[in-house]
Amino acid sequence: MKHLFNRSIFLTAAVALLLGCADLDEKPVGLLAPESLFRTSKDVETAIMGAYGWIATERLYGRQFVSALMLRSDMEDIGDRGTPAERQQVNDFNMDDNNNMVNQFWPVWYQVISSTNAAIFGAQQLGLPENTGNPLMAEARFIRAFAYFHLVQVFGDIPYIDYFISNPESVKSISKTPAATVYTNIIADLEFAKQWLPDKQPAEVRSRATKGTAASYLASVYLTMGQYQKAYTEAKWVIDNKDKFGYALEADFQTLFKAPQAPNMKEHIFDIDFLGLKSGDGGANDDIMAPMTGVRGGDAPRSGWSVIVPSLKVYTTWDNRDYRKEVSFEDSLLIGGKLVPYTEFTNTKRPHIAKYARFAGNSNSEGRYSDHNYAAMRYAEILLIAAEASVEVNGPNAEALGYINQVRARARNWAGKQTTFPEDVKAGLAKDAMIDLILDERRLELAFEYKRWYDIKRRNLGEKVFKGPNSLEPHETFNASRDYLMPLPRVELQVNPNLAPQNPGY
């Protein structure tokens, strides 16, 4: 897919009218002629590939957006306090409405959306046969749902645009759509995608959506909304059809974080594909997560910036017998030709995240421009979604235990050597205790994979995880009435007052 990005830049730039990207009175951009942009189904596919490409940029999955998700959780903290204040504000729950991380990623999500709207328009305008046009529109609608699912969780009520913007003047009248309506539209897009996408993409690549991808995200959306029966139904459908889609757990947990990965890794349901040592305009293909999480001062090629580093308690409370801890942390490193423990790290004397920096593949000396395929959704998560939803619907049950224990069984494979930890979960837990166990299993299994903040938010855990006696990363500044949402960018409200009011507390 990656090679298509550069040739799609012109088209996606043409259709990506951003909210608030300029004062439209001062910088008119003219009217687009959408009928001239799409002449064949290949042009529609180009717009779709452009949308995928915008996700694999520095401002989204390459650094800015995913860093914000990490810093917002109780699993990742600021390491080097010399990092720009915008990151510290996100981490410390003292953001204002001009936070530059938000300013960076907000417009790019709308570029993604604009590209998908253009693709859908193009397919409709061309009058393509159903079996040609609908799969293309289904892929575009999946990407649109993916973008809005992130935006609505981070911001709540947001502008919802599902049409091709050909007149920039119309941007001035756009207002916010209630979050509940956004979720309804996300579900509609995913249901269409589930109906019309193929079971597998060519060469089984996981960086393009399939029926299984759409169903997996339906399960995640329903889980987020607390519609547990529907979440269970969708997750169970994916599990029951795993062989048709080619899904399974990788035998060795480390394989998931060892670049370059196969483009059709069986555990990946949807991934964001970066190509080593390649970059383009607008931060295209610029993956900076290895240096952001890597150890400052390490010997090349393992030297990072110590920006996003877990608090020490995240490390010390994780059982040393768990292979996932070994894979997830760097607690010693070569510095000056000598292997030293984290207590002798040059900058931040804490164990660092290893999932991205340890095996960055073809990359520069800091791990930048990596070969990683970042799993936005993997099969282990579907098993845990099914378990959580099943317990919510039916209480503790053998099926849910089986899903959890599949994940734990894989964790017992320590690089080919079978161990006895973590043990299978036994029957007998009460419902609340089992839900807590599943949430903690998600915390460990999906550690540092941009999921934890969403779990904290959907389960209303902020007071507990940031202020409770067992907090891994205490933040007394956390305010539940404010901090479950981030502020809309100030510049957006200045350009378009229809987006008011600002989110509470900002």
Task: Report on the architecture of this protein.
It is built from 19 helices and ten strands. It has three domains: 1-197 and 465-492, Serine Threonine Protein Phosphatase 5, Tetratricopeptide repeat; 202-252 and 371-459, Serine Threonine Protein Phosphatase 5, Tetratricopeptide repeat; 288-368, no CATH class. The two termini are 40 Å apart. By secondary structure, it is mainly alpha-helical. Helix 14 packs antiparallel against helix 15. The strands form five sheets. A two-stranded antiparallel ribbon has the order 1-3. Strands 2-8 form a two-stranded antiparallel sheet. It is globular.
| Beta-strand residue fraction | 5-15%
Tertiary shape: globular
Instruction: Give, in order, the helices and strands.
Output: HHHEHHHHHHHEHEHHEEEEEHHEEHHHH
Distance between the termini: 40 Å
| CATH fold-level assignment of the largest domain | Serine Threonine Protein Phosphatase 5, Tetratricopeptide repeat
